[in-house]
Amino acid sequence: MNNPDLSVIIPVFNEEESLQELSDWISRVMKAHGYSYEVLFVDDGSTDKSWLKIQSISAADHNFKGVKFNRNYGKSAALQTAFRAAKGEVVITMDADLQDSPDEIPELYAMIKQQGYHLVSGWKKKRNDPFTKTVPSKFFNYVTRKISGIKIHDFNCGLKAYDKIVVKNISVYGEMHRYIPLIAKWAGFTKITEKAVEHRERKYGYSKFGFERFVRGFLDLLTITFVGRFAMRPMHFFGTLGTLSFLAGFLFTAKILWDKIDSVYFSQIPLKRDVTQQPIFFLALVALVIGVQLFVTGFLAELITRQSLSKKNYLVIDKVGIDELPEGSKMKLAANA
């Protein structure tokens, strides 16, 4: 059986009122454009009747499928689970609250299939949210844009489109769903763009946004930036810091020794305080010890990285004149991912 044209992934957390209306809307769009499709609901530990509604929708239309978590794990876990299950050639993610319009799907699909983008991120150019949500979001997007070098305006928009090859070769965890464009970029999928999309007013329920998610988001940004840049070469990070710290400690030590030599052999002016009573002595000692520790940390991390690289599955998107790939590199064809 051929894979469907589209997989639509919808994380759900206490959205029972909107699910039927959203499902009917998606069905109308798909039938109007003649797409083969599947819709994957992921119930992220809802405490209302969302799962019963998903079961009812699936029973009426087998294009709609569902997964239920035993508790709330977060949006990243929901997306990661659905990414693994999705069969569509193009994968669309959207929120369940009806603020994302399914009418955007055909153009997003065309941008992936016809224009050749790996990822298209929605841009809620005109937002229908309170300023307590829009102001932090603008600041967050500005910082992420500067750090990542990806020129899109809305990293956290739930409405995105992906080539199948992308979702099968990235991993999303923690609060990392905000940084999927950055994760895709680090994985080598650099054809990333954005599309201005309609952002509708919330019709049912309430926003799940909270200040703690904003804080966790920035911590995850630091994590993914570090991992993306230094995961394969940790010595470049730890070794550089260790060298700088050791060099500073060496210079402090040289200064202490010169002061001691100068007071004994040249100026013959005794030091006001003994060497071990001077603050610079402790600065030198700490800098030298930290420098050595950082360098050893980088060395051990490099050994671990080399070990893991020998077992790494590399992404190969095509081959010619080769029936079998080398044993030891264990590569895999993206088309079969």
Number of strands: 9
Query: CATH topology of the largest domain, anyone?
Result: Spore Coat Polysaccharide Biosynthesis Protein SpsA, Chain A
Assembly state here? single chain
Q: How many domain units?
A: 2
In summary, what is this structure?
The protein has 337 residues and is α/β, with parallel strands linked by helices. The chain has 2 domains: 6-229, Spore Coat Polysaccharide Biosynthesis Protein SpsA, Chain A (Alpha-Beta Complex); 234-316.
Task: Describe the structure in your own words.
This protein is an alpha/beta fold and 337 residues long. The chain is built from 10 helices and 9 strands. The protein has helices at 16-33, 50-60, 75-85, 105-113, 131-148, 164-167, 180-186, 211-230, 234-266, 279-309, and strands at 6-12, 37-43, 64-68, 90-93, 119-123, 160-163, 192-196, 315-316, 332-333. Strands 3-2-1-4-6-5-7 form a 7-stranded mixed sheet, with helices on both faces. Strands 8-9 form a two-stranded parallel ribbon. Helix 2 links the parallel strand 2 (37-43) and strand 3. Helix 1 (16-33) runs parallel beside helix 2 (50-60), helix 5 runs parallel beside helix 8 and helix 9 packs antiparallel against helix 10 (279-309). It is elongated and about 95 Å long. The model is unreliable at 327-333 (pLDDT under 50).
Key terms:
337 residues, alpha/beta, Spore Coat Polysaccharide Biosynthesis Protein SpsA, Chain A, seven-stranded mixed sheet, two-stranded parallel ribbon, 12% strand
